Amino acid sequence: MLIAIKLKSFQRVLLIFWIFFISFVYSQNQNILTLKLEDIPGSKVFLAGYEYDQILILDSAHTDMNGTAVFKCPDQVLAGMYLITDATKSSSYFDFFMDGNFPLQIQCQVHNALTTLHSSTHAINESYFEWNRKLSNWNRDLERCQILRETQGNQSTDVTHTIAQIQKRSLMYCDSLFKKNYTNVFGQMLKLKINPPRTYSKVPADSVKQRLEFKRRYWQFIDFSKPELITNPFLAPRIQEYFENWVSLHPDSVTAEIFRMVTNMHMQKKSKTYVISHLMTIYENRNELIFDKSKKPRGMQDVFVELVNTYIRSGFLDASFDSETRNRMLNRIQQIEPLLTGKPLPELLVLDTMNTRIAQSWGFKVGISSENAQRLYELRKAQLESMFYSFNTKNGPLQLLLFWSTDCPHCISELPIIQDRLKPLIESGLLKVLAINVIDTDYKGWLNFIREKNLNFFKHYADPVHLNKFKTTFDIQATPAFMLLDAESTIISHHQSLTELLSTLQKIQNQSNTR
Length: 515
Hints:
The chain is of the alpha+beta class. Helices cover 49% and strands 16% of the residues. The chain has a six-stranded mixed beta sheet with strand order 10-13-12-11-14-15. It has a four-stranded antiparallel beta sheet with strand order 3-2-5-6.
């Protein structure tokens, strides 16, 4: 009996020890991030993560009186770059990496993070912090050399030699880091941050061939199948730089390059979603006109329409967007596709000042109900159709539609300026400007404004019959707005600013002079 009691006691002690041991091991294996932020005791800090071009707040913690804050991270931490921000979430204290290796400890003085950041438990972060320090020092030295060069002139061989030495040390150091960290999260970041060399000794010095070689190597070491590719802030600007500087500025070239990237680079579905969404956002609002060898203009918004049709309308990315976002994109291209460069002008029924006065005498008064307007229109349809302006002038000048309204403060101040800028082109016969008032306006007030501002270089039109839906049909988001047509009412440009419009008109004028 005594032996049995002793055995039970021993088993109880063994069980307690086993529970303690398991708890100890479990606590050591938890995903604990400990921050020692010496100069902000008793403060709230936020842990945030990068996701392509977004910053997502993940958690918050308070530092104790010693400046220590503890975060319990998820069991499956996405490898990538993270950041610690202040309570306002308006600025970041510092960036660092997480790759699943815990416990992770980082200490610094946040107001002097560059020089004080250290991680005794994570070699990759320690290398990253040291890299930032070295780059900062080299950049400071280069700035000093640049100041010396400006004061001493380009003849200073010592300064030139010093700059070359700094650049050489920087390249050697980065190359060493790149090889050492090739497969980890730091290496992924370096691949995105560091561009390939701009010149190649084995490639002929011809600039086109050098450019093609650089473009070929631009994505050479970047593995798009890695999930950590989007958990850092460097992929989005690299993609934007690539399309702005290294892809021909033509809608066909840009679209083909996007299709090639998405098809051939083994992107994860999430990466594809972010990249395609980013590029759709860029090209939805690009108003440049490209004149290719055919001398026919092409608009960069073609890229946006092609991407939505290929990846959204087809259902390719259905799982990545909710129905509201998908419908918004489809509605957007439904609105802008008829207004792309090369499309015919949608139906536009407007009357000049004289015919507007006649229409108002028939009863098309300001504030008329839609029912009465429709009844009057049916009654006067034959007469009105002969009065509407015809936009197909065949061999006439270019036609600029200037959408404006008498209740628009910008229009009131800008229309005289617009007239002054366009007057030489109007007088040369290249351009005719049709100023279209898009709101229901008192006839006398409309004419008085035109006379007061002396807008006699424009042809003035309105819609007293209420037949046009200007905002939706012509995607007018603000006034004044421009739409440039050729003589046969084919759209050349839409949504361009006055500066962009003048540049387009200059290109067209130059082309006509070379024919």
